[in-house]
Structure formats: structure tokens, C-alpha cells
């Protein structure tokens, strides 16, 4: 049974609430139960390609009701990170509008010249010229930040290159490693808890990946639940030096416990 201390919930999106273009069975009942029992929650995703508005529309089309304010993306977390480090700074950005908007909203100036940061996010429109610009800026002192470390992303036709793979190209060319803001960086968890006004002792992280969701939760010191509806299976758990607090088949298994 769930602990009474699990008052605040952080839920990964892909593999937990949705699977490609369909809802995970019971995800709608799980979210409704969180709402009806007054448990604050955020949907966390390392996917930096979409704005909260776009994510709301996507989940709504699959039968899930989540407000825009209940999404916490790696784009938003990255914007918060650079604002905290260098308020009012500048950045050269490779990524979708979601990342550009998030940085603009925290007062960042976007430029191709003498940028404080080169910031890399997910996009399906990577450009050779953009990579050349990024490499030149980093060689001249710009700091290298990336939204998330996943090397691939899913598609109906198989894996697509992800932010982690693209970051490796820039790292190989410059010798400079990026700072990844998204999971497994526990910073993303701590920022999400700040958004909820919560603390680690009263919070739970649900995810489908040991190497991102569960590791981030473990490092942040919160309760963790691995669901088997996504990437990792039960047999994968023992490969890691850390363990989730609990393993369940899917979020549907938690509905009657809330």
C-alpha cells in the first residue's frame, strides 16, 4: 500500500501515461483519482520538443486531462537553470519553439554571437550550419548545456537520434561535455517539487526507466515507483546498483490505493 506521506506526485509521461499514440490503460483513472483525493501532481518529461500547451492538446486527444500548468518539461527546467546561473544572459539555441519560448520567458536573449550558453534541445530539424555555429561559440568560451541525455527517441519506424546523440557530436568536435538538465539530473526533480511547494519526504516519482526516472528520484531522495508499461521490465531492475521503492505493472495498479 502507498504511504500516507505520498501526498505529491511526479509522473513521467511516455511509458507511464501514454505509449506512442495511445493512453496506457488506467492512466485516466489514475489522474482522476489524484485530483479527487487532492493530491498535487506534475507530469515530467525529458521531451523538449513541445510546449505545455502542445502537450495538453496531445494528451487530451488520447483521453487524458492535464492542465498546462501541470507539465514540467526539460525545456522549462533548462530555462530555470540558466536563469539561476546567469540571470538576463544570452544563448544560442538549437531546438524547437518550446525551448526558445521557455528561454524568452525567463528573460534570455537569443543570439548567434558571443552567447553565454549554447543550449541544445530535441528537434527533427538539426542543421549543419547550426552545429558549426555551436562548435565555434563553444570554442570561444560559450558554456554547453543540453536539455536531456537520451541518445534515441521512439518512432513508428524505429529509433530516431535524440538529444544525447546530437550532443555527442558537439562534444566530440569541441572536447567540451554538456551539462544535461533533464532526468537523471535530480535538479529537474527538485525544481518540480519547488513548483508544487512540496518536499522530498512527501513526494513520489513514477517512471518507466531505471536510468532516468528512478535514478533522478533516488538522487533527489524521494519515493520511487517503476511501472512496467514502458521501457524497462522487471528483469532489468537488478542490473542497477539502486532500486525503486516499488515495482508495479502500471499506474492502474495504484488507483485503488489512493
Please describe what this structure looks like:
The protein is of the alpha/beta class and 258 residues long. The protein has 2 domains: 8-46 and 183-257, HAD superfamily/HAD-like (Rossmann fold); 78-180, Rossmann fold, CATH 3.40.50. It contains 8 helices and 15 strands. It has helices at residues 27-36, 52-61, 74-85, 97-105, 128-139, 163-174, 186-196, 210-220, and strands at 8-12, 18-19, 22-23, 41-45, 71-73, 90-94, 109-110, 117-120, 143-146, 152-153, 160-161, 179-180, 203-207, 223-227, 246-248. A 6-stranded parallel beta sheet has the order 5-4-1-13-14-15, sandwiched between helices. The longest helix has 12 residues, at 74-85. The protein is globular and about 55 Å long. The termini are close together.
How far do the termini sit from each other? 9 Å
Q: What is the CATH-assigned architecture of the largest domain?
A: 3-Layer(aba) Sandwich
Order of helices and strands: EEEHEHEHEHEEHEEEHEHEHEE
Q: Please tally the β strands and state the result.
A: 15
Amino acid at each position: 500500500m502507498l504511504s500516507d506521506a505520498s501526498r505529491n506526485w511526479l509522473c513521467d509521461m511516455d511509458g507511464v501515461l501514454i505509449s506512442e499514440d495511445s493512453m496506457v490503460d488506467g492512466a485516466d483513472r489514475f489522474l482522476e483519482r489524484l485530483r479527487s483525493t487532492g493530491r498535487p501532481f506534475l507530469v515530467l518529461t525529458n521531451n523538449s520538443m513541445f510546449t505545455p500547451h502542445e502537450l495538453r492538446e496531445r494528451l487530451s486527444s488520447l483521453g487524458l486531462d492535464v492542465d498546462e500548468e501541470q507539465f514540467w518539461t526539460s525545456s522549462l527546467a533548462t530555462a530555470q537553470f540558466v536563469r539561476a546561473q546567469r540571470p538576463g544572459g544570452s544563448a544560442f539555441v538549437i531546438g524547437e519553439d518550446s525551448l526558445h519560448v521557455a528561454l524568452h520567458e525567463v528573460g534570455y536573449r537569443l543570439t548567434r554571437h558571443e552567447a553565454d550558453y549554447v543550449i541544445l534541445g530535441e528537434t527533427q530539424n538539426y542543421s549543419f550550419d547550426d552545429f558549426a555555429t555551436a562548435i565555434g561559440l563553444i570554442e570561444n568560451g560559450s558554456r554547453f548545456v543540453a536539455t536531456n541525455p537520451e541518445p534515441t527517441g521512439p518512432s513508428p519506424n524505429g529509433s530516431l537520434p535524440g538529444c544525447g546523440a546530437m550532443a555527442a557530436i558537439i562534444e566530440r568536435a569541441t572536447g567540451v561535455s554538456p551539462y544535461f538538465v533533464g532526468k537523471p539530473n535530480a535538479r529537474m526533480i527538485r525544481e518540480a517539487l519547488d513548483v508544487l511547494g512540496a518536499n522530498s519526504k512527501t513526494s513520489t516519482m513514477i517512471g518507466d526507466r531505471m536510468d532516468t526516472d528512478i535514478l533522478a528520484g533516488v538522487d533527489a531522495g524521494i519515493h520511487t515507483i517503476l511501472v512496467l508499461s514502458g521501457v524497462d521490465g522487471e528483469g532489468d531492475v537488478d542490473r542497477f546498483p539502486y532500486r525503486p521503492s516499488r515495482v508495479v505493472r502500471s499506474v492502474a495498479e495504484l488507483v485503488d490505493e489512493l
